[in-house]
């Protein structure tokens, strides 16, 4: 995979499932991250080709729980992000998915207690030797630590042979309300020869060019801006958020997305522009399945057409 001059959908927990990744790609994202999956979890899965919806599923053994779903349409674009604290386990997990994804990313950025207590995410920033062991031939994403340490760590990661480095412009203790430090990303860019993907405070299409100019990074990663309206990746006129939501619901129906995940993403979209106490939000909260969500957005006919198509496939199988 090439990492120069790319628009990248950031990894987002419970959001970066197949329908949302394909939605972002339709609007112009060149690279789309899946949500972070812990190495322990993926190595408990078996790879299953799902002829019913034409996907490739990694399903937890002994259950019907789909841990990761992808498809041929995104094979050259999707990045599998892994949470890990062990090089051997990380390699085993990567080998399981590598034929179905464009790249594997190691998360060094998550500051939440679940990741840090398990020695994953931001906890890796204090373990450069482990980073080196895990790092060979992977693609890394990490936040800033103190600037000299960040630059030194970035140089060390580069020497492992990674293809690219995504840098989030906040330190571990920072929160989303704190401004991203684009100037510090620029220091990392100037210290490396591999592509750096800049991430932080990209909320509209014009911000993409601004962060590139400010940091010198050739590529840009977008998180909340894409969640609120995935058409941020489009150089054309931004799509209305109502249309984006409806298209997301359609993709969720088409790819049989988990209803809890779909509801979570819709609620996140709504809360940026509106309120969950309004009728739309209340209807989403009450929805029990994808059919209910189709009704919320007046798309019962689409839901039924997909359902009828699958029934016909079953009959001819």
Automatic annotation (TrEMBL):
Family label: Belongs to the dus family.
Residues annotated as domain DUS-like FMN-binding: 9-133, 149-273
EC number, as in UniProt: 1.3.1.-
Classification via InterPro entries: Aldolase_TIM (IPR013785), DUS-like_FMN-bd (IPR035587), DUS_fam (IPR001269), tRNA-DUS-like (IPR052582), tRNA_hU_synthase_CS (IPR018517)
Lineage of the organism: Eukaryota, Viridiplantae, Streptophyta, Embryophyta, Tracheophyta
Keyword Flavoprotein listed: yes
Keyword terms of this UniProt record: Flavoprotein, FMN, Oxidoreductase, tRNA processing
Name of the molecule in the record: tRNA-dihydrouridine synthase
Domain of life: Eukaryota
Cofactor(s) it depends on: FMN
């Amino acid at each position: 995979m090439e990492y120069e001059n790319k628009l990248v959908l950031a990894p987002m927990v419970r959001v970066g499932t197949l329908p949302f990744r394909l939605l972002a790609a339709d609007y112009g994202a060149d690279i789309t991250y899946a949500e972070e999956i812990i190495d322990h979890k993926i190595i408990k899965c078996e790879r299953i080709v799902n002829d019913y919806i034409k996907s490739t599923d990694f399903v937890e053994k002994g259950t019907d729980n789909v841990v990761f779903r992808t498809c041929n349409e995104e094979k050259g674009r999707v990045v599998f992000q892994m949470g890990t604290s062990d090089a051997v386990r990380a390699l085993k997990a990567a080998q399981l998915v590598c034929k179905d994804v464009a790249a594997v990313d190691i998360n060094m950025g998550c500051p939440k207690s679940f990741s840090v207590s398990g020695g994953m995410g931001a906890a890796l920033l204090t373990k450069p030797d482990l980073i080196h062991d895990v790092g060979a031939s992977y693609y890394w994403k990490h936040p800033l630590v103190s600037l000299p340490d960040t630059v030194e760590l970035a140089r060390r990661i580069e020497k492992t042979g990674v293809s690219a480095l995504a840098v989030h412009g906040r330190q571990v203790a920072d929160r989303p309300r704190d401004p991203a430090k684009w100037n510090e990303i620029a220091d990392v860019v100037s210290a490396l020869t591999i592509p750096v993907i800049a991430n932080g405070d990209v909320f509209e299409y014009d911000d993409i060019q601004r962060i590139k100019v400010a940091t010198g990074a050739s590529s840009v990663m977008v998180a909340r801006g894409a969640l609120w309206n995935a058409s941020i990746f489009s150089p054309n006129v931004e799509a209305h958020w109502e249309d984006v939501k409806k298209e997301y619901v359609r993709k969720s129906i088409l790819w049989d997305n988990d209803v809890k995940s779909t509801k979570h993403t819709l609620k996140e979209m709504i809360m940026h522009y509106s309120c969950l106490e309004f009728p739309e939000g209340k209807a989403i909260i009450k929805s029990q399945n994808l059919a209910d969500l189709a009704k919320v957005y007046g798309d019962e006919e689409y839901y039924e057409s997909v359902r009828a198509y699958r029934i016909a496939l079953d009959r001819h199988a």
